[in-house]
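Hi support team,

I submitted a single chain yesterday and got back a structure, but I'm not sure I'm reading the token output correctly. Could someone confirm the output below corresponds to the sequence I sent? I've pasted both exactly as they appear in my results page.

Thanks,
R.
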Amino acid sequence: MLVIIRGLPGSGKSYLATQLQATIGEDNVVMLDPDRTDYQSQAYLDHVKTLTAEGVDSKLYPYRFLRAQAYTGIAEHKVIIWNQPFTNLEIFNKMVANLNLKAAEHNTELAILVVEVSVDPNTAMQRIEQRKQGGGHGPSQNTFGRFVGDYKSFVNDGYRTVAVRGDADISSSVATVLHAIKNT
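Hi R., thanks for writing in. Yes, this is the structure output for that exact sequence:
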């Protein structure tokens, strides 16, 4: 199963993803999050070396690294939780197609659930600013504005989609997602 957790930066995606992983069980989940990737790890550096030798554009390295982990998760029949805004539907569709091809190579079907985490953009921006003040990451106000302008729901684009509020009780949001997983 592939669970895509998407929403604006600061919407609560990461918190939901980690709570969901804890509930499902860490041994049963492959967690993918570009913001939590250790870009200095030996695994990532080896990955970069391979892609460099293949002539792959360096902008694609982080995505390809996460995709390789997703492929491993598919082969091991784990739940893949991919936490990322995913604002571009065309790129999202290509990613899903690649993952479905990998699943077919392993004679399995990849069930997909899109979880859309929504929150007022002002609340999201406040969360980002607080995170940055604490030494964390976050987009600039201009980049955040682009996310707000580009973000559209995938509910009518052929994917099983469930919506949760990023400012709701986390246990309720986890229960909503688990219910959707069971019915996907």
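A quick pointer for reading it: Residues 89-105 form the longest helix (17 residues). Let us know if anything else looks off.

Best,
Support desk
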